[in-house]
Structure formats: C-alpha cells, structure tokens
Amino acid sequence: MGAKGKQVTGKERISYMLYFLGQNTFYMLNYMYLNTYFTDVGIPTAAVAVIVLIVKIWDAINDPIFGGIVDRAHFKSGKFVPWLRICIPFILVANILLFAIPLNVSTGVKIAWAILSYALWSVGYTMTDVPIFGLITCITDDQDEKTSLNASGRIAALAAVLAISIIIPVFRNAIGGWTMTVLILSVLGAIFMIPIGLTAKERVKHKESGKQDDTSVKEIFSYLFSNKYLFIFYIAFLIAGALNVASAWGLYIARYCVGDESIMSLTSMFGIIPAIGVGIFVPALCRRFDKFKVFYASIILSLAVNVVAWIVGYHNIPAYIAMAFLLSIPTGLYSVLTYMFTPDCAEYGQYITGNSKPGITFAVQTFFAKMQSALVASLSAVVLGFTGFVEGENAVQAADFADKLWNTSKLFPIIGYVLALVILHFYKLNDHDVSLMTKVNKGELTKAEAEKQMYNRY
Known about the structure:
- Helices cover 76% and strands 0% of the residues.
- With 458 residues, it is mainly alpha-helical.
- The protein has one domain (12-201, 213-427): Growth Hormone, Chain: A, CATH 1.20.1250.20.
- 53% of the residues are buried.
C-alpha cells in the first residue's frame, strides 16, 4: 500500500485538484449567479424563490437514493471512479441548458424551463459530488494525506471561485452574454474533470459487514440516525450558509451599492487570492492543531469581520476592498476545512454501527451543500423582493435600495455565524479519536483497545 503519506501519486493529486477546479466551475456559476441570471431574463424574485425550493425538494429525494446506489453498485474498476466518468457529460449538458432560457417566450415558459433544467442539473451535480468525496476514503488510509488531499481540492475550488468571480463581471457582455459565456466555461470545466477517472486508484478496502450488499431503507435511516456528529456539523453548515445572502448578491451589490458591476472582479481578487494563500497552510495548521479547533476559530473571525464591515459600509471603496481582504483570511480556512469532516463522520458511523456506508454519508454532505445553496438562493430572492427590487438587467431601483441591500447582506450572515457557533459546541469528534476509529474499522484494533486511548467517549 506504500509508505505513510506516499500512497497517492503525483498524477492522482493533480487530477484530484483539476476535478475540483472543473466541478466548482459548474457549482459557482450556479451558486453565485443563478439568481441574477433568472431576474435578468425577467423571472420575478418570488418565482425564483419558489423555483429553487421546488428543485431542492427533488434534491432531498435524489441525494440519499444516489448514495444508496453508490453503496450497492459493483463496478470492476471500483466503487467511486466509474461514477466520476459517467457524471461529466450529464452535468455539462444540464449546466448549459440551465443558462439558456429563451428571452422571447412568456414568463410561464421561462419558469418551466428553469425548473426542469435546474432539476436536471441537481441530478448531475449529485453524480459529480458524492463519488469524489467518497473517493477520499478509498484512495488513502493515511490521516495526514487525507487532510492534505482534501486541502488541495478545496484550494482548487477556491481557484474556481476566483476565476468565475472575475470572468462573469468583466467578460460576460464581451463574450456574448450569459449563455455563450456559460457554454465556454462549462466545456472547460468538463475537460478539467476528466483526468481523475483515468488516474485514480481505489487502493483501500474497508472491512464490510455481511449486509453490505443489501442495504434496506430502514438500515439507511438507522445508520444516519446513529451518526449524530454528521448532522450536528451539517446543520450548523446549513444555517451559516443559508443566511449568508451576500454570497448570492455579488453582482447586485456591485451594481447598486458600489455602482460598477466590474468592481466585483477587484473585490474577488482581494478576497479570494489571499484565501487561496491561507488555504495552502491548512495542512500545516492541522498537523499542529486539531482541525475542528481551527475551523471553529475561522467562524469566530468571520463573524467579527462581518460586524466591522457592516459598520464601515460601502461608500468608501478602499475600505470596502480592505474588508474583502480581511474576510478572505477566515474564508480561506473555512472553505478548505469544511469538507474534511465528512470522512471523519464516515469513520465514526462505521465505528458505531459496524457498517461502512461511505456513499450514504457523502450523499448527506451533498444534500446539505445543495440545500444550503437552495436556501440561500431562495431566502436572498425573498429578501430581495421585500427590499423593493425591480426585475430586469437595466431596471431602475428606488433611492434607498442600496442601503437596504447592504444592511441585509451583513445582518443575515452575522446571525448565521452566531447560530452555527452554538450548534458546533456539541461536535466532539477530534483527529486523535478518528484515527483510532479508522484502525478499528480496518480491523487493526479492537473497540476496547481504542477506547482506552480516546480523549472522548462515544
């Protein structure tokens, strides 16, 4: 299996990073700009809120179903790698359709197009997300290497955020509008995702129970209800993300508060490039400190910077950019660390139940990530409507609209971070104990032997 820390090859690591660069090209187009696109083509804000909620009800169904399919499917080339090959054409077509709503049709047709294409996109994104995060449990069994590989993926994801944040505001009109820009970016995203399916090797085999091949719905829910830390972490994640309405208002704030859509590219550079730099040091931080403590500290710092930014306001452009820079520090930590806890929860779930269900565990991650995206999109659309927003790319807004937009863009995230900190107080998993759980799951230790060495009791 190789020496410690040397199981993953250089080609695998590069391919892993490229996959996240491509996958997050698709995700960030949706997460950052879908609301703006829908209102630009003339869909009312109330309808936008309904569209994302309807689609995510479908997500609530397809995520655990797909996780169960992954756990039950048996391909000769592995549990996760085949899905990484299958998903690429699916998400490519779905993403292009989502941003190709005809302008010369009725509002009803636009809404129907949006619902159907968004539902197709949600299936495609589930297919891209569950397998890549599940792969981390099979590509290496070294905890430090898992942390390093996860960090590499998140840094690549931040690079995608930076690229999309710059390209859309600056080049969208020059390229030919929403559909042509998304078409080009989607093709590039798909190309980046291809190598992992050619290079990844599933070299770690977990000890499986006798029921592994026959997972009933009852067993799925029994496993999920036993995995309390999975839900504690992702409920906090959901609340913090859902209330971060500013993440869906990037172009709105640039247009109506600052008065220049292209300023979003500048704030993105000052806000994301430092975040990537901070993210590079996450593996080193996690070798010195427990990663959950670093994660918790990043939320406290995000809360503090948002309070200061709210007070400073948006009228002073240099101060506005400086706040984006300061926020990049906790953002870099938070973004890189977030998805490092699902593998821990997968190990905990197997340790508690005796059943290895990585597909279902990572389906929960995918479900909450997409629910977060849906709720912030829906909530931001509803709040936008209450501020008196007028639909249409060149519509004129009320005189007090900019102040209302700015105040809500800061107040909601502040509330979300406070609630997340309270919930995360009950999360007790740590790196030391998870490492022992992994050894139990592989049959290298008994539970009794592991419990004697653990910091907490589970």
